[in-house]
Design goal:
This protein has 124 residues and is mainly alpha-helical. The protein is 57% helix and 0% strand. The chain starts with 19 loop residues before the first helix and ends in a 22-residue tail after the last helix.
């Protein structure tokens, strides 16, 4: 049987891996030669806690901003409704409009100015 040999001009090309470029410069094997370095564990946990707090805080802020925007649009709609209803009420409460609405009941507008009724003591 023939033995596999590399020919003089042909050399094996190493396949480039995705994380190969990161693995070689960091030399993580030297750090983990003697096992996991436990002395860095509190710092790593503290940083992980800060990251979780930061992510939660940003989610809370975004949710609050969305709620604020929603309430602002609702307030604008309510303000527009209020202005419209106020204008309609002011128009409907004008003396001429009230006179038109009560005319079918036989009520008429008085052209005499109101006068004061004076009651003397003991008359009532």
């Amino acid at each position: 049987m023939a033995v596999n040999t590399i020919r003089a001009g042909e050399q094996k090309e190493e396949k480039k891996k995705v994380f190969g470029g990161i693995k070689n410069p960091l030399k993580m094997e030297k750090i983990f030669e003697e096992g996991v370095p436990v002395k860095y564990l509190p710092y790593a946990l503290f940083i992980a806690g800060l990251l979780i707090f930061y992510i939660g805080n940003s989610h809370y802020a975004e949710r609050t901003i969305r709620q604020t925007d929603k309430i602002k649009t609702e307030v604008e709609d309510l303000r527009a409704d209020y202005t419209t209803l106020k204008a309609e009420l002011m128009f409907a409460s004008k003396q001429s409009e009230v006179a038109k609405k009560v005319a079918p009941y036989g009520l008429e507008e008085s052209y005499k100015p109101p006068y004061k009724i004076v009651v003397k003591k003991g008359e009532y």
